[in-house]
Amino acid sequence: MGERASKLKTVRLKTPISDEDLKSLEIGSVAFLDGMLYTAREGVYEKILNKGETPDVDFTRLTNVNFHCAPAASQNDDGSYNIGAVTATASFRFAKYLDRWFSETGTKVIIGKGGMSQAHYNELYVPHGAVYLTTVGYGTGALLGRGIVDVEAVNWLDELGIAQAMWILKLENFGPLLVESDIHGNSLFERNNKEVNERVEGLYEGLKPPALARYGETRNKTDELI
Amino acid sequence: MIKSETIEMAANEIMARAAIDIPEDYKSGIKGMIDMEKGDLSAFVLEAMLENWEVATEDRRPMCGDTGVPRYYIKTGNEAQIEGGFIELEHRLRRATAQATHDIPLRPNRVHPLTRQDNNNNVGMNAPEIEYSFEPDTDWIDITTVHKGGLFGTDYRMLFPGDGIDGIKRFFLDVLLAFGKRGLACQPAIVGIGLGGSKDTCMMLGKQAACLRTVGSRHPQAEVAKLEDELKELGNTTGLGAMGFNGNSTVVGCNIEVGYTHTGGMPMSVHCFCLSSRRATARLYSDGSVDYRTDPEWFTPYMRRNTVGWDGNAALAGAAE
Questions:
Q1: pLDDT tens figures, B227-262
Q2: Are A55 and A155 spatial neighbours (Cβ–Cβ below 8 Å)?
Q3: How many helices (H) and strands (E) would you count in chain B?
Q4: What percent of chain B has pLDDT over 70?
Q5: What string of DSSP letters covers B214-271?
Q6: Nearest to A196 by CA among B173, B23, B137
Q7: How far apart are CA B124 and CA B97, in angstroms?
Q8: For the residues A164-193, what does the mean pLDDT come to?
Q9: How far is A142 from chain B (nearest CA, A)?
Q10: Per-position DSSP letters for B47-82, written without gaps between them
């Protein structure tokens, strides 16, 4: 880590992440994980929540950490896996699944890209005592890839493909991640967006609007788009 | 004669280089930004990226888990001869794409847009894209691969001449704010801008400006180069740093390409090439030798010619005014 990193608090967490650890997480801290996580995104959410299918390996017994990720991976001829780099995909698209997902799987930590909106934290995360860790960059794919020491299992590889399958991965010093939301729903991105939004009006000052406007859901540059 | 085996070998090599090794011009640009960055979180992110690129090169592992959507740009000398012709060239590029996807490995990102069918090899209908340009008086071919992310950081708008520089600046800011918050654009980015052309050309030029020109390059026409400088500076005053954290690192370079357009319009496209600005080029010579580099050298004086005919020296003099 470089010199600017030393100004940030760093924590190392073991999965499944305990309630005490969840409570102690502060937004803006750097986190590294040991243990295990699983990947699940739209393909897996649809299968389990909407089609009622069950994976061969019960991930809920192994970990409470969900990574919004599709790894750069391949399967070797002997059936083993080659994991190259891993980085997160933008999480806001999966908000509609999360209430049931938290309830049915006991998941407490989402790792992803970009965080969620304040409304999502208030309505989905806080009631379930869940927090959000964001990957850094984006994407520190090689660093995170180094933190994956083994593939524990893969569910639905043939049906969903490499990118959408559920990978259960063993971790050692997996990071860096940043604590984006805490159990109270405080959000690092929200805090930063507020400060950026304060400058928006000044940024556009003196620039006349174009002759032809566009239809859109918002023209206010301080509105949340996710 | 350029052999098809050489084409496939070189294509495999540039696929790996693009995915793994960050181009030096981009890395130097980011190093320069860390010292100027006022936000600690944003600076931390950039430091982590530097470490990440080192690890990628050390481990021969892709720098990012989203390995983008691989595509190719071919520049072929007017005198180049390719074994099996362009049909074989395209076949070899598709084979290399599938092979590299498995071997590196890359993420098989390409799926059918409706059925979501994944061939697990980044090959499919109209994928990978292969674009062509030509170069007079030579017999080499350049093969460039670009692995750009596919989801965020790009937009198009039809502006009008009366909208002027104000209109350009507004739309530029619109895109940076829309995709810069939360770092969806994975900034600091090489921001490519297409100005003019017909709509599809406008998109194509902007994308090529982002992906096929280096950090620090300048357009040969003075008015365009001046606007590149202005927009880069403006883009770093939004308050957005890496990941959308407070800071001043959004635009590491701004490259504009122009195309003559309808007299009533000023179409504009904006494209962000991200913290994994993946590109690599191979030059294949007729004697079988191959050179590798990270600057695609795509926009040659011939590409930007403004005249009916082509006289190399005259066009160079014209471009330098």
A1: 999 999 999 999 999 999 999 999 999 999 999 999
A2: yes
A3: 8, 9
A4: 97
A5: -TT---SSHHHHHHHHHHHHHHTTSSB-GGG-BSS-SEEEEEEEEE---TT-EEEEEE
A6: B173
A7: 11
A8: 97
A9: 5
A10: HHHHHHHHHHHHHT--SSSS--EEEEEEEEETT--B
- In chain B, positions 51-80, which contact chain A (CB-CB < 8 Å)? 51-53, 55-56, 59, 61-67
CA distance B77 to B268: 30
The secondary structure of B175-190 as a DSSP string is HHHHHHGGGTT-SSEE
d(CA A164, CA A221): 33
Instruction: Please give the pLDDT value at position B315.
Output: 54
Yes or no, beta carbons of A144 and B65 under 8 Å apart? yes
- State mean pLDDT over B182-203: 97
Mutual angle of helices B4-20 and B85-103, in 10-degree steps: 40
**The predicted structure's pLDDT at residue B317:** 46
Chain A CB contacts of B278 under 8 Å are: none
Task: Record the tokens describing residue B147, joined without a space.
Answer: 């692995």
Domain boundaries, chain A: 7-188
B245 chain-A contacts, CB cut-off 8 A: 188, 192
Q: Treating both helix axes as pointing N-terminal to C-terminal, what angle do B222-235 and B164-180 enclose, rounded to 10 degrees?
A: 40
CATH no. of A7-188: 3.20.130.10
The answer to whether the CB atoms of B243 and A136 lie below 8 A apart is: yes
Nearest partner of B192 among B130, B273, B266, B261, judged by Cα: B273
Query: Is the confidence metric ipTM above 0.95 for this complex?
Result: no
Burial zone of B273 (CB within 10 Å; 0-12 exposed, 13-18 middle, 19+ buried): buried
What are the tens digits of pLDDT across the range B289-317? 999 999 999 999 999 999 999 987 655 54
Compute the distance between CA of residue B206 and CA of residue B97 in angstroms, rounded to an integer: 24
**DSSP letter string, B121-163:** SS-BTTBS-EEEEEETT---EEEEEEEE--SSS-EEEEE-GGG
Express each pLDDT in A142-156 by its tens digit. Answer: 999 999 999 999 999
Does residue A59 come out as left (phi exceeding 0), alpha (psi in the -120 to 50 range) or beta?
alpha
